[in-house]
């Protein structure tokens, strides 16, 4: 199996809004929503992809050969790579009827488990869908992270309880989902939360809590103060607010602010092992990749998901080897090329 074949096979099943591009850079889908595109008129998804490429790596092959260890621990889960499959919901609407959310989450979790990683699971308005997703989670021994929308507290209590009952080891919330059309004008209201509301939500969850949709040091600080154990630097792939910077651009300031008080994850345009290396060198602990897993699953199901993860994980190993990093904690800022005159590492 090679990645190009998986993309070709995916194109037989996927709606034309997504071209199942071998390199998913946000250009072909543009602003197609429904579909995998970005919101509005701007280029946020494309900018996410491009920003990683502006970070160049310092190669140093003059180091003793040794095994490369990419293992990562998240809240007691020992993982083979610092790579998670990201949450995507309403897959039939955006990509076509080969999967509904339940089937997609099932394939995603199983494929990730096969190679020792984990998936985030999406959430949408369909309450029954969430219950079924939780039964799939239970079946995998709790190997996924429910990523719940910022609903009203009473709905959250129900969804948190279902997540715990299914054996989840953590809960995430895409706190930026207020930018999605279907969360607007709901009764009871859903969307943005104050720091105080978030603190109550974190307490109610009773599991390690990940706040997804952090794009500034200030928001990261509020999330950590509210009790989040991890922040996920994300602009929802450009789907919630036009005009945002890329996640790579804001990552260094956020990791500096958090300074070891919480785990820092990042998503947005991360497509290969060198991108994972770039993210870790800029201070992230691990990465999340979303859209390419759709191509993997629509093209080759569970095997496709495992294939993509292993491919990116092995590319990460290659980058580590040639930069002298033997384990993830060896990856450091000085492994990134820095312009001597300006001190900039985004070139
Ligand atoms: C069609 C589609 C549906 C998504 N659904 C969700 C969701 O339910 N929950 C969520 O937190 N993020 C959702 N996302 C955002 C992704 O998880 C991720 O943050 C974003 O796509 C950036 O990562 P990527 O560039 O690797 O795709 C969705 C993205 C797409 C394209």
Tell me about this structure:
The structure is a single chain. With 347 residues, the chain is α/β, with parallel strands linked by helices. The chain has one domain (3-20, 44-332): TIM Barrel (Alpha-Beta Barrel). Helix content is 40%, strand content 12%. The protein has eleven helices and ten strands. The protein has an eight-stranded parallel barrel, surrounded by seven helices. The radius of gyration is 19 Å and the shape is globular. The model has no long low-confidence stretch (mean pLDDT 95). Flavin mononucleotide (FMN) binds at residues 36, 48, 86-89, 94, 122-123, 147, 174, 212, 234, 236-237, 239, 267-270, 289-291.
Write the topology of this structure.
Layout: H1 3-11, H2 44-53, E1 72-74, E2 77-79, E3 83-85, H3 91-95, H4 101-114, E4 118-121, H5 127-139, E5 144-148, H6 153-165, E6 171-174, H7 195-205, E7 209-214, H8 217-225, E8 230-233, H9 247-258, E9 263-266, H10 273-281, E10 286-289, H11 291-323
Parallel strand pairs: 3-4, 3-10, 4-5, 5-6, 6-7, 7-8, 8-9, 9-10
Antiparallel strand pairs: 1-2
Bound molecules: flavin mononucleotide.
Flavin mononucleotide binds at residues 36, 48, 86-89, 94, 122-123, 147, 174, 212, 234, 236-237, 239, 267-270, 289-291.
């Amino acid at each position: 199996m090679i990645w190009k074949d998986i993309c070709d096979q995916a194109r037989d099943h996927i709606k034309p809004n997504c071209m199942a591009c071998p390199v998913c850079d946000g250009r072909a889908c543009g602003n197609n929503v429904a579909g995998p595109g970005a919101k509005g008129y701007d280029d946020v998804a494309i900018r996410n992809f491009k920003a990683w490429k502006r970070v160049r790596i310092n190669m140093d092959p003059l180091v003793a050969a040794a095994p490369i260890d990419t293992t990562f621990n998240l809240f007691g889960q020992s993982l083979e790579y610092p790579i998670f499959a990201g949450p995507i919901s309403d897959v039939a609407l955006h990509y076509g009827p080969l999967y509904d959310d339940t089937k997609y989450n099932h394939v995603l979790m199983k494929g990730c488990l096969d190679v020792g990683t984990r998936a985030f699971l999406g959430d949408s308005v369909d309450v029954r869908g969430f219950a079924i997703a939780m039964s799939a989670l239970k079946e995998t021994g709790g190997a996924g992270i429910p990523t719940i929308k910022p609903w009203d507290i009473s709905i959250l209590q129900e969804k948190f309880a279902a997540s715990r009952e299914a054996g989840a080891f953590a809960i995430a919330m895409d706190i930026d989902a207020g930018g999605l059309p279907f969360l607007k004008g709901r009764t009871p209201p859903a969307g943005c939360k104050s720091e105080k509301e978030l603190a109550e939500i974190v307490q109610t969850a009773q599991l390690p809590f990940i706040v997804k949709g952090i794009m500034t040091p200030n928001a990261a600080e509020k999330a950590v103060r509210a009790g989040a154990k991890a922040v996920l630097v994300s602009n929802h792939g450009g789907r919630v607010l036009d005009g945002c910077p890329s996640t790579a651009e804001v990552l260094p300031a956020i990791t500096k602010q958090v300074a070891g008080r919480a785990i820092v994850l990042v998503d947005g345009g991360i497509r290969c092992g060198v991108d994972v290396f770039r993210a870790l060198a800029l201070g992230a602990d691990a990465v999340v990749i979303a859209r390419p897993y759709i191509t993997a699953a629509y093209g080759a199901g569970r095997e496709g998901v495992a294939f993509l993860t292993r491919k990116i994980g092995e590319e990460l190993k290659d980058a580590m080897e040639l930069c002298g990093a033997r384990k993830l904690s060896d990856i450091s800022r000085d492994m990134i090329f820095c312009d001597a005159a300006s001190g900039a590492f985004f070139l």
